[in-house]
Amino acid sequence: MISGTRGRIHFVEQRGIWEHGTLVEAPGKGYGTAYVWEDIPDMPAEPDPLNYFASASREAVSCFLEDRESVSTGLDGLKTLEVLTAIHISHKTGSMVPLPLGEGLDQVEIRSTQQ
Predict the structure, then answer these.
(1) Is residue 90 included in any domain, yes or no?
(2) Three-class secondary structure of residue 33 per DSSP
(3) Which of 24, 66, 72, 87 has the least CB density, counted as fewest CB within 10 Å?
(4) Total structural domains in the chain?
(5) The pTM is what?
(6) Which of 74, 75, 39, 71 lies closest to 56, judged by CA?
(7) Contact 33, 24 (CB under 8 A)
(8) Closest CA to 5 of 35, 39, 49
(9) C-alpha 52: how far from its chain's center?
(10) What is the residue-averaged pLDDT of the chain?
(11) Is residue 1, in this structure, part of any structural domain at all?
């Protein structure tokens, strides 16, 4: 799950879809806020949760044959990497990490293990 100042995004594994929740005022519920969940538009209607690699490979071949840019651009990949880096920094420091990331990140060590 990714949380921001205006809402959250998460993957609903049981349904195989991504949803976004807009943060709204909800008096009488916890801290006075709640989320209104909706499917994220432009996602495939029927994703194949067991075969992402095949889908990505088909997309890469189609882009080459059709001489077009992928639905997932290099900029999309860069933004994804930035979010994943922020998640690791947040976990390591125990604090919120604002996006876009700032300078000085070359001093942050990120490891794929807990050692």
Answers:
(1) no
(2) strand
(3) 66
(4) 1
(5) 0.45
(6) 71
(7) yes
(8) 35
(9) 16
(10) 75
(11) yes
